[in-house]
Amino acid sequence: MKIKTDKPNKKIEWLQRKHDEQGLTVAEKDSLIALQQARLAFLEEQFRLAKYKLFASQNEAHPGQGNLFNEAEEMAELELEENKSEPPKDKPKPKRKRNTQTFDEHITREVVIHDIDEADKVCACCQGELHCMGKDVTEKLVFVPATTKVVEHHRLKYACRGCEQNGTHNTLKQAPPVPSILLKSYATPSLLSQLIISKYQHGLPLYRQEVIFKQLGIQLCRQTMSDWLIKIANVLHPILYEYWHKILLTQAVVKADETPLKVIKDDNIKSYMWVYSCGADSPAGNLQGDSTPNIVLYDYQPTRAGKCAVDFLQGADAKHYTGYLQVDGYAGYHQSHATLVVCMAHLRRKFTEAQKAQSQNSKKNGKADWALNHIQKLYRIEKLIKDLPIKERYRIRQEKTVPLLNQFKTWLDKSAPNVLPESLLGKALNYALNQWEKAIRYCDDGRLDIDNNRSERAIKPFVMGRKAWLFSQTANGANASATLYSIIETTKANGLVPYDYLMHVMNQITAGNTDPEKLLPWNVNLS
Question: pTM higher than 0.90 for the full model?
Fold first, then answer.
């Protein structure tokens, strides 16, 4: 009898195939579950970040402050080194200041005497005459609404009566026309200065200024004011803006930033206002031994293309700027010929977002917390050396900052492969690694800052004003805004009152004095 062995073999093969299929199905399910869990974690992270941006404070000062006590000894050591040459002094206990308010001496003062009746100036005891032993002075601030006036310029004409009677050539003489900053316009430097600072310093749109003038009995429509602003910007641009532009491109360090702008009659949905600055926010903020002028220039461009920065930094002489350019991580700046320095605050912001989006159930400090605490150590050093000379800043950075940066880089290289790239922490780690060489470049020169907050502060007035007037109607209006914002912010950075400086400049131009060197805000004396 022949035994058939093919059936058991087929059954074994069938069972093996089923086993393999089931194993494959489990593996696929495990993979799908892992993928869904990662997707869920990503969405939860995005939700927490959105909730944080919507409801929480956006202040980035002192991130990770709760864990700063661990490096107190390290920071104290640096402070002791800086102060070891000075003998210790007993600090007197500060006196409690009274809540008093004083006003500037230039404010007009009116003295009102409050006296008692003559009958009361007799002593009730001896009937002797009382003498004045002193007085109490109380100041009250009174607001006087703005006033306007019309100045009529009468130009008298003179002719010869004899020539008129004889019918001969009549001699006609008259005083020359009154110089005007804008031809065929009744606008004066004082009025134009008020319009400029109202919109570009205080963010007051023209339609609101129109209402204010109407309450003063003046019919001044917003279209007229808009035309004046464009015309005065065209007058000031070649005298001030272009000369400042040349000076800015000769500086060793320039900082840049950009922000969106809506222009109605522009082909692009979103245009951009770029800002370039050098120096400090104020004359008192300059480093010791640093003579860099304080300049802030705005530049309107219809796009955010890197060519915009290249063209601005090239200048009229076609020479490319090759100094330090401190910016954020935007790739458009890479097209320039400058040496890029990436802002550490933007690097920190990525880790702040990752920290705020992490699960609140986690009781342990995560990688984002470690990064923020380490970055905070760098900022603590910068705070201690901010007022030191340039060479001293460089020396301390090489001694204290560079080792911290090397430690940070080692941690980044070790942490990046173990984090999901699509997560906020993964993006923060990859951003830090991609920008690392540019982010640590501030240690190469004592004139450089750790971040680009100077430009962000410079562009903030434009952003605040944009909330009020929302958009520009035309590209000409946007270019005029760039010029006038540049004048306002540069004037403020040099410690001048914008209204007084604008009045001075326009009066000088009206008188024919157009030498830009004599109109530089750091050379002008308005007192």
Answer: no
